[in-house]
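ok trying again, last paste got cut off:
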Amino acid sequence: MTAQPVPLDLVAIQARCDAATPGPWWADDTEIYVGTPDDCNPDPTWIGEACNPDTVDHGLTNAQFLAHARTDVSQLFARVRDLEVELATAKAAGYRQAADHVAEMIQTHGPDFDQQMILVFLQNGASLRERFAAAQQAAPSSPTQPA
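nice, full thing came through this time. structure:
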């Protein structure tokens, strides 16, 4: 069985992002600075260093990762927020569609479309949601590409 993802504490992530030195950041070898290499600042603000003598590149890839994380995390956070809005909108549309369908069935079948039929309809919808969620968890995740 696939492990459930750990819920994100978006408030804490946003707070850490807001509290960090504003970006962008860049890496010069293993040292990380504020700004970009093109700023021509003779004395850039130093953020830190990512030395690792146990690796072939001595921490260069770590420094690149950390430098890019400053803007990457902000962009990922914004994308998560956008997807949350999209999901909420899609759910609301699905609920409206289900309600419209029930209303149509009642109108079509009149008094023969009783509460039991509505319950079966709603249970089928719940079953479909569960199957969809299971299929999403079983599918290998792949990063989405920007449109």
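cool. The CA atoms of residues 9 and 140 lie 24 Å apart. Confidence is low (pLDDT under 50) at residues 142-147.
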